Amino acid sequence: MVSSNLTDTQSHDRLSTTDRDRTGQTDFPIFTSHPELIYLDHAATSQKPKQVIDAMSRYLTESNGSPHRGAHKLSVEATRLYDIGRKKVAAFIGASRPEEVVFTKNATEALNLIAYTYGLSTVKAGDEIVVAITSHHSNIVPWQMVASRTGATLKFMYVSPEGDFLPGEWDKITDQTKLVAFPWVSNSLGVIHDISGLIAKAHAHGAVAVVDAAQAVGHLPVDVCALDADFLVFSGHKMYGPTGIGVLYGKHAHLEAMPPFLTGGDMIEYVEEQSTTFAAVPERFEAGTQHVEGVVGLMAAMDFIEHMGITRISEKEQRIARYAVKRLSELPFVRVYGPREGHDRGALVAFEVEGIHPHDLASILDDRGIAIRAGHHCTQPLMKSLGIMASCRASFSIYNHVGEVDALVEGLHHARRIFGYEHG
Amino acid sequence: MSMDSLYTELIMMHNRSGHNKHVLPEATHIERGHNPNCGDDLTLQLWIEEGIVKDAAYVGHGCAISQAAMSIMIDLVKEKPVAEAKVLAHDYLRMIRGEQLTEEQRDALADAIVFESLSKMPARVKCGTLGWHCLEVSLAETAE
Ligand SMILES: Cc1ncc(COP(=O)(O)O)c(C=O)c1O
């Protein structure tokens, strides 16, 4: 039976203590509520730093009002904060102007917005939409809708189990292609795609590139201008912010040409009984009373990331992910998916344990205070193409440390014992 | 019952009752149960004749809880009148919802009682009820 050797564990314990202090797990009240919690599910939703919780609480306590409506002080203050939030997001992702930032509910809504407005108005019968097979359902289903309504063809670019595009797959992007969609970092395999290359390839054929950055923002530096992305989306709740707030970045010229998505209040200029003229970009895409406390929380999350330093966050996550791949690969009963040991990967590791269904493993680990994700990770086409039924996923962020990987490995041995594979 | 001991018990029972996982050529009722969120995909096959569940088996793939629950259910309903199987399904699903059963009803559920703790594990309720829902649907279309 394999068990981690003692000196190893001790040195990791030392490491983990300093790690914990340096990153301030103390910034995250969830770990005060659950001192034993080992949270390895950042990729599903991140835990929230105190700064985010406090900022939202302060806003609701001191400044709450309806943005863009009414002349009273609270409404003015809500509007001011909302507008500052837009400027801050623009600066955070390197957009050339705040108007290129549209607030949405989450990445999913942002992708649907692109599909229903840009997609339905520009894609025609006979055109092609090319999507990376590594995409999350939120970056597949909207394109199926566009293809079936317009008569366009949907094509997929396939990958190896390591997450690399198979030879020739990029050649599916041709002059018939109107739109290319892909994740920056796959939430299922952890592979980091060469998105600059994909964007350039799309542009070489006159197609637009849609980047799903849900697993990238908060982990990697983002500069939409340097990338030359046409559209880029992400969710606040996966980058230390609250749920219910997401971002659509779009090049101004694209947004300018797009019809509205949802209609109603706030997105209008003049409404007559039978007709309406619409507000300018970006308000045209923000119908109804907006989620100001969400924007306030998102601002605090961006401040937190900037304060921690994106390079430091990224280095730490890489270190934990590399360590996890190494430890898991040493176990003969574990199969690790995604990039090989030593290759770059996002802050997550997907794996399977022989003889134990991922959901059973997740329940047994949960009982030991270890939270992981199990299932198809909203990437059924990817799983099917690789012949994987379901997998387990451990994902990492600034509040994790290598000692938690050791606990995960010990948890796997425990589960194997329960399932009768190991004794003692 | 703790999660660990639930599993320990399930694994033992499941090993014992792996005999229920196979194709049933005589099947008169086939019901596929699918849990899209976790991928469990099990198909229950029943051979019902003259109001009696003559034989039953399942095929498919899923987690230990969904397969053990299915297999234990099959052991329980085999050779029972349809009317009785319906009552068992009804009581089992009530148990999972956290409702109180009488001693008599608990006794009738026999080994399936180990799943009582699922009423406190909302994340796994769907696994433990997949097979029983297949049974309910199949029996609903059957004359007693
Ligand atoms: C890569 C990726 N894209 C999109 C999403 C969708 O995010 P949300 O559910 O916040 O819209 C997720 C998360 O579930 C994801 O991991």
Molecular structure report:
Chain A is an alpha/beta fold. Chain A is 41% helix and 15% strand. Chain A has 2 domains: 152 residues, Aspartate Aminotransferase, domain 1 (Alpha-Beta Complex); 254 residues, 3-Layer(aba) Sandwich (Aspartate Aminotransferase, domain 2), CATH 3.40.640.10. Chain A has a 7-stranded mixed β-sheet with strand order 2-8-7-6-5-3-4, with helices on both faces. In chain A, strands 11-12-15-14 form a 4-stranded antiparallel β-sheet, covered by helices on one side. The longest helix of chain A has 21 residues. The radius of gyration of chain A is 23 Å and the shape is globular. The N terminus of chain A is likely disordered. Chain B is α+β, with helices and mostly antiparallel strands and 144 residues long. Chain B has one domain: Sufe protein. Chain: A (Alpha-Beta Complex). In chain B, a hairpin with a 4-residue loop joins β1 and β2. The radius of gyration of chain B is 14 Å and the shape is globular. Chains A and B meet through α12 of A and α1 of B. The site of pyridoxal-5'-phosphate has 12 residues of chain A, from α5. Pyridoxal-5'-phosphate binds next to α5 of chain A.
Quantity of strands of chain A, as a count? 15
What is the largest interface, and how many residues per chain?
A-B, 17 and 20 residues
CATH topology of chain B: Sufe protein. Chain: A
β-sheet strand percentage of chain A = 15-25%
**Rg value of chain A:** 23 Å
Write down the oligomeric state. heterodimer
Set down the secondary structure blueprint.
The complex is a heterodimer of chains A (424) and B (144).
Chain A: H1 6-23, H2 30-33, E1 38-39, H3 50-63, H4 73-93, E2 101-104, H5 107-122, E3 128-132, H6 141-150, E4 153-157, E5 177-183, H7 195-204, E6 208-212, H8 224-227, E7 231-235, E8 246-250, H9 252-257, E9 268-271, E10 276-278, H10 292-308, H11 310-329, E11 334-337, E12 348-353, H12 358-367, E13 370-371, E14 373-375, H13 380-386, E15 391-395, H14 402-418
Parallel strand pairs in A: 1-13, 3-4, 3-5, 5-6, 6-7
Antiparallel strand pairs in A: 2-8, 7-8, 9-10, 11-12, 12-15, 14-15
Chain B: H1 3-16, E1 29-35, E2 40-49, E3 52-61, H2 64-77, H3 82-96, H4 103-109, H5 125-140
Antiparallel strand pairs in B: 1-2, 2-3
Helix pairs in contact in B: 1-2, 2-5, 3-5
